Records
---
Amino acid sequence: MNETKITLIFNSANLFETLVRKFNSDQNFSEILSGSVFALVARVVSAGLALFTSIIVARFYGAEAVGILAVVNSFLMLVTIFTVVGTSTSILRLIPEHITKYSVTSAYCVYRKTQFFVAMVSLLIGTVFYFGAGILADKVFSKPHLSFFFALASGFVIFKSLMDLNVQAVRGLLLRRTFAFMQVLPALAMISILLATTFLFRHPNNPVYAQLAAFVVTAMVGVFIMDRAFKRRVQHDDVVEPITLKEILSLSLPMLLSASMHFFIAQTGVIILGMFRTESEVGHYFIAVRLATMAAYVLFAVNSLAAPKFAQLYHSGKMDDLFHVAKKSSKLIFWTTTPILLVLIVLGKPILAFFFGESFVGVYPVMILVVFGQFVNSISGPTNNFLDMIGYQRVFMRIIVLSAVINVILNLALVPFFGIYGAAFTIMISLAFWNTCTLIYIKMKFGRTIGYVPLVRWN
């Protein structure tokens, strides 16, 4: 028996070594694989910390506290989409572009102008929501007691906005390890503050306070890192190419639309549940979705490094290499996400019971619906990044807008009657719809696809 175990371990190690060697032998893909390591580790650690945080909130503060925290987070995510105005994406292009064409000082000027604009817009919109918190809680959510949380969160809009901007700006400077740290920092700060407040003085609102404080910590650290990183590189004789705010916004606004549509697909269920259902039901739904979307962290890690390679190969006219790398990225996504999804299907109930308590076992069917949507996401590969990087971003924008419209309509139609089941079914349909439409478009346009399922030929 022991010899058999040793043989199996030895064979598994050889298989793993062979797979790694095979991936690394492909120069184009090895850049993505090696570069994804930091991003993937950071996302896994961040996901683990976020999951641990959810466990603490569920165990020590109850499902209602989880629900309130989910609503506050969704509120801030929605507001900051319009305060950041797509600049968190456009800054990824502007910083390296100005460094390459002009100088580090020129890129620094672009960053500072963008940062100042985001801060001013955040203060303005945060003030509006502060005074309108009562109306929002009473008229939209029909829960007047939430007005305190909306008013409180409004004061932290500026910190959430600067955090989002700076996390992406770090990527623009190609600081991979710093980017990984910045991804982990919000979850690390949240769990640290929550644990301290939980054991020092217990208060029902501790989870919300800890989350808002984590945004402050991450935003300030991001500002410090970016300022120091730029100032260490600037030269007195640097050439500065002026760029107007209008030019920055002309690039950022189309990206705002895509970002807002992604938000609607991911968060509309939480918001509409908050309007029609109790905080406890929102909390149960939030936990189910958080578990089901664990695999999405792998997808994000691969996409973050694959996207620039897609652009490079496409604009070099290397179409065969482009689809080869895209297909390999899809294979990597499939083989790293599918085991996670299978574990959730097989062991979902024990996981929910052990980590969150018996009261959360009932959301297992909800989690399974979202898992099916995530599986379609996994087998489709990096569809949105593929189209964005090869100049077909308007095509994807139309697909994602249509998907978001379907998402909102289905949520409004189903949630009042079916609650969390309606919200979960909607997110499953939305994920399947936009991924399928994108794959069909790529197939029709190029005659081949980037999706991957073992033993199935899609080309």
---
Amino acid sequence: MEPKPSKSDMERIAGRCKARRNGCVTWEGATRDGYGLVRVAGVLMSVHRAVWIHYHGRIPKNLVILHACDMRACCNPSHLTLGTAKANFLDRVRKGRKR
């Protein structure tokens, strides 16, 4: 189970983000496969997951975080939604991002 980010974790995350004209808030720190990475309570996790957990609580086991904006580095809470892995896959195919 991923830890819930503290207020200081969120301040640290905010300090490494940049607001964009398209409404995205992009992570400017370390990444893996385009997704921001941050350490919370000693656990390395994706920034968008940390942001989701902070604002909405735990992520149910059978769901993933989807980016409505399709930008992996985005951590704007209003661009993040819950969905199934299948829905995420079908969205990628529909948008031509997956062969």
---
Amino acid sequence: MSDLYDTDVVTWSDYQAMLLRRVAAGERINDLVDWENVIEEVESVGQSQVDAVKSLVINAFVHDLKAAAWPLTPYVPSWQAEARLFRSQAADTYRPSMGQRIDVARLYAIA
């Protein structure tokens, strides 16, 4: 089953979803489920969301810093608008459980 995961993750995920539905319905087919990769994929969903928020926060900082560093450039209003958009998108995506995984000071240093 790992071969399918490595060669065609879309087909693999469809097949695993079907198997998990069968398990949820009470069928005893646990040995068919590719548990190692299913667990990895479930974990990666959450990490992807955290990474998305981090990226948005970094982009907001970058645009704020550019506006502060070059206050006389005509790009400042655009940078400020983009920073607001990134902050808004980060706020919409953020979940309280992400707080312990996001080091804002580190993200600022990266920016």
---
Amino acid sequence: MDDFLPVILGADIIAYYLARCFHEAYGVKSVVVGRERWGFTDHTRILDFRLEPDLWQRDRFVDILVRIAQDVGAGGRQLILIGANDQYVRQIVESRDALSAHYVFNYLTLEQLNSVQDKANFYELCARNGMDIPETVIYDLADDAPVPTFDSFPRIIKPSNGDTYFRAQWPGQKKVYRLNSNEEIAATIALIRRNGYRDRLVIQEFIPGDDTLIYDSVFYCNRAAKCEFVSFGQVLLQEHSVAAVGNYTALVSRVDRPYMDKLKAFVEAIGYVGIGNADIKYDARDGKFKLLEINVRQGRSSYYVVACGFNLARYLVDDLIYDRPATFDYVTKPMLHTVVPMGVIARHVADDDLRREAKQLRRQGSWVDPLRYRGDLSPRRRWFLWLHGLNYFRKYRQQSW
């Protein structure tokens, strides 16, 4: 393709499957820029990897991307810029004026980003727009207010501002804390404060139930803030390591049109643009789906919508390059998405019916692993994928959430 070239920031599984989206749809070889090399984007034929160790540094970010644009943007091609994680999305938005001269992208304004990506602001947005959420308390570490106490447990603690939280790194830092007493809550807040995070914390009730009560939704809103598709998926397994809990390793697509319509109405009401990924949990106590967060990007498991016929690359290209809005549609095709071997699903999904369903979808060929791309399976990549799958047997045996 001579009209455009994707430039993807990141080196993880998301960066790989985004490159796969463009390669599948257009045969184009994406430029992938990362600050370190990961196996996901190594030994592959479908992308051109550029190592930039300073990419995460805000004072170097624009200079690096301008240099890359000057290097790869010859011939009048438009460069589509995509962040594979929250930090890169924020840096793109914060650098919009400087980057817009070299790239096209579809992201929220900085004000909108702060209202969605900052969890405390996001829950206020949900309350104003009628979206159900878990019982939530916001605690500001910038104040000296007493630590709140609770009568029921477990409780979840997570940062409101993930960007500043993960920049304050320390040994044993967790993405989400699941706590069982007021003493544990006080100690965890003290630990987070001591290690330099000074923004707000979100303290929520833990909605009862295992991974299979978690749901996922992927959607795309064009530059006119009109939603073009929405999906719904039931999680079978999520990562159980302290650093990765919340990343889904296996799910099956579902259809719940009332909730899909509700989510579509919400994102259009708040003026959302770009790819979004919603995390949801079903609360059996009141029969409601509770919205946990919206990631302002594609999620780790979002490739299932591509396998269902909704290629994320085509939506971006049609919107940003050709100005061709799509008619809204629901993702309805049955699909199993997994990055773990079927043996892990068989051993660690407790629900018999879901295990059988996963097995049946696999047998029918209605399944996808975003890392296993038929056009990109060199011997070295096959070896990496075999080790990657094998490692999950150890991880799920040793870790619990």
